[in-house]
Design goal:
alpha/beta; 15 strands; 470 residues; three-stranded antiparallel β-sheet; Aspartate Aminotransferase, domain 1; Aspartate Aminotransferase, domain 2; homodimer; 14% strand; globular; 16 helices; Arc Repressor Mutant, subunit A
């Protein structure tokens, strides 16, 4: 993959194939070696790549040939529509947050931090070590590597107030990313057809997971300081719901962090209703002027089920999260998680543990905080200067996003299209609402590539907005 | 993880902690360095491990202390039982196949091949390369790495008969292991409450995934040569089912491989009923006296949805599978898979591709075939000699298991317990039946560690069986 010499040959041969007839014979390895001034190993590697892609085929002892293209006739799959039946509601994914964007645009839409913000040296070293270890060839216990379970438990135990029983490693289930965890939690703690209270706006991945499981979403409005306890109380009373999904720290998209008082009030409501709080601590490592204070540390009665991913802060390649629960709920969660994913790759678990227990991790988090501060402030200032029509209710104390409110008459999809035509990719806020949007918003992620172009991007958003408003 | 010097310190300090009072101060790093004759780096590493486990805590500038144990009071989680409601049917996982066994027993129960049977050198080298590449820090496209998609498509294209349109890379979705894929397929192609035809016996993971999604399983009896077409026809007619899950090659547990004629007959039935065949080609790389011949290669009308995992043959740490479908079903599968798991770690995808396109992979598969032949034959001969009361209907032409039928009066769980007490772990066959078991069976996996002890293991099974039968 990283061998540029082999890549060069692949790309040259690919061009040649495009003009060659099917079945044409490739030049011999020897002549490719001399043509590209490369070693036989490099040429063989390039040919293997092309064989892997199905572009050429090797006939041992005969030679290598351009793959014979089979007569392609348009497939008739219309029978499938009858077999599949109606589309399930809400199963279409919003395209913006997972989209790949080309390098020549400013990408403010993605949910994943840029390469500059992950601890590259630690991650690469950890993969090398894990590749040499037992983890590369064996299967870890289904609930996770004991040492990683312990690490997640210890992190929460370190902030558990005196007098409360801290979780232990047996309360932790290692899962392959928080998305798998949300499916499991919605299925085990709520169930198809039953109500789930959810902040509005909230993380679109949770909305999609809920649709997949078929739970009925009950929106609880949530502003820059979180939801109002009265709204939550009323929603529990009216629906008989037994669970509330929330992001009490640096909520995605609006950055809200609940005050300690609000946290206690919510815990109190949840307990009185015999319900679960599903706490998604997605931005635990992304504090800026505050740190994430998990509510789960303030509950030892099994009411809070806590989910905390390392994917965004360690590396997008390390899809590992910890899920902490207590009581019978834990048994059901463990069984459901295994039925869905069996277990998490031991290498990814070993890498995650290696990175977060390295002394360099703390240093990385300190640097990250500084970088996020600079990026957040630069984007916010640029927006204030270039998009005066828009309103930034609060500067988030953590997380990766600004939540920019636009005039009510804005045509969001037209605006997003217009921005993209000018080289700035933005995410329309509607995807983050489980029901009616509370207004017109853009979610602008300040952790993407090329922060130096934030002022330009803001200027373009301003111009596009004024054009869209007429 | 692999540093034995640091491990030694961890284990010594752990013993010391066990006798020390909570809050006790650890000897200084300097004194540990001299006590263990180790470098400061090694001592620091050991302490980090213990901090990660929550056994000790560092107070910067003060010292390192045995972690204060908080007053543990028994948690009262009884409220959860009301909140969670009744247990969903079938959600308890059979414990046998995923269980870890200690080294001093002969483990015939596991579904995963021993370390000796995976291409260790290729896997380790691939992890090292992937750790250095872009894949370690970035997010691949949601549907998968294009080159890996191409590889899966090309593998099937290579056996597609002339005249049929082979799949292309766009028809492939990369998923994090086949278990995630089965959930997605049962949800998108069948749906909760709807019937799914399934071989009996069949893979327990499929039975568990079906229970999780809530599909209604309709068993179709399947013997050593596969199901009877008449049974399948009747099941489609009586239930109106739109899908049939099967393993046409080296079925788990009974090793059946369908004849080409049976394959065509099943395809014909599936097409006439406007239905899907979900083909789980789990043992593609485990042919012994035959090769796997995917039925998916004989269908270009979108009726066969194909799933093919690399986890068991590349490494348990490389949880990567390819799913191939065409038509509107593909769109729904892609959307559901993303909603469940987002995407698969780019490192795991890069490692999988690296291994299967390495010239050493073909050599490995040839060696593997020889090893599996030897293991299968040794276990089968040993059983014939030492367990004459049991019946081995057919020697499988591929796969990892023998399916041993026992006398009808055998008490299976008593037998399994008795074997384990004597140092042989076996899996009771009942877990592989979606409804009533068709008899008393043991599934005996011949890909586990210590094949040299198969004769001993067979002798023990024979003794335990005779004891159980009285």
């Amino acid at each position: 993959m990283s061998n540029s010499s082999s890549d060069r040959i692949v790309s040259a041969v690919r061009k040649w194939i495009a003009t060659a007839p099917p079945g044409a014979r490739l030049p011999s390895t020897r002549s490719l070696v001399s043509q590209f001034e490369a070693s036989p190993v490099t040429v063989q590697k390039a040919l293997r790549t092309l064989i892997g892609e199905g572009a050429i085929e090797a006939r041992p002892g005969v030679g290598t040939f351009v793959r014979t293209v089979r007569p392609a006739r348009p497939g008739d799959y219309s029978w499938q529509t009858a077999a599949l039946g109606p589309l399930q509601h809400g199963m279409a994914l919003p395209s913006s947050a997972l989209r790949a964007a080309s390098n020549d645009v400013v990408a403010l839409h993605s949910g994943y931090p840029d390469k500059d913000l992950v601890p590259d040296r630690l991650v690469r070293a950890a993969f090398t070590r894990a590749g040499r270890s037992d983890a590369a060839l064996s299967r870890p216990p289904a609930a996770g590597m004991p040492a990683l379970q312990s690490w997640f438990a210890a992190e929460l135990a370190a902030v558990t107030p005196p007098g409360l029983t801290a979780p232990n490693s047996g309360d932790v289930v290692i899962i392959p990313g928080s998305q798998n965890g949300l499916s499991t939690l919605f299925r085990t703690l709520v169930g198809a057809g039953k109500p789930l209270l959810i902040e509005s706006p909230t993380y679109w991945g949770a909305i999609v997971a809920a649709a997949q499981v078929g739970v009925q979403l009950v929106p609880v409005p949530s502003g820059p300081s979180g939801p109002h306890p009265e709204d939550l109380e009323r929603a529990f009373e009216q629906t008989g719901a037994r669970a509330f999904y929330a992001q009490p720290n640096f909520a995605n998209p609006n950055g809200a962090q609940w005050s300690p008082g609000l946290g206690e009030a919510v815990l109190d409501i949840v307990r009185r209703h015999g319900a679960f709080l599903i706490e998604d601590d997605w931005a635990h490592d992304f504090g800026i002027t505050a740190s994430s204070l998990p509510l789960a540390a303030h509950d030892d009665s099994g009411h809070v089920v806590y989910i905390r991913s390392l994917t965004k802060s360690v590396s997008p390649a390390v899809r590992v999260a910890g899920l902490i629960a207590r009581g019978p709920a834990l048994d059901r969660i463990r069984a459901d998680s295994q039925a869905q994913a069996m277990y998490v790759s031991g290498v990814l678990q070993a890498v995650a543990l290696d990175v977060v227990t390295d002394p360099g991790w703390k240093t990385h988090l300190r640097n990250l905080r500084q970088q996020l501060t600079g990026r957040r402030d630069l984007l916010a200032e640029s927006l204030r200067e270039h998009v005066p029509e828009a309103h930034l209710e609060a500067l988030p104390r953590g997380g990766l996003n600004l939540w920019l409110q636009l005039p009510a008459e804005t045509n969001l999809s037209a605006l997003a299209r217009e921005c993209e035509a000018r080289g700035v990719v933005v995410a329309a806020g509607d995807d983050w609402f489980p029901a009616e949007p509370a207004g017109r918003f853009l979610r602008l992620n300040y952790s993407g590539p090329a922060p130096g172009r934030f002022p330009d991007a803001a200027r373009i958003i301003g111009e596009a907005l004024r054009e869209a408003l007429g």
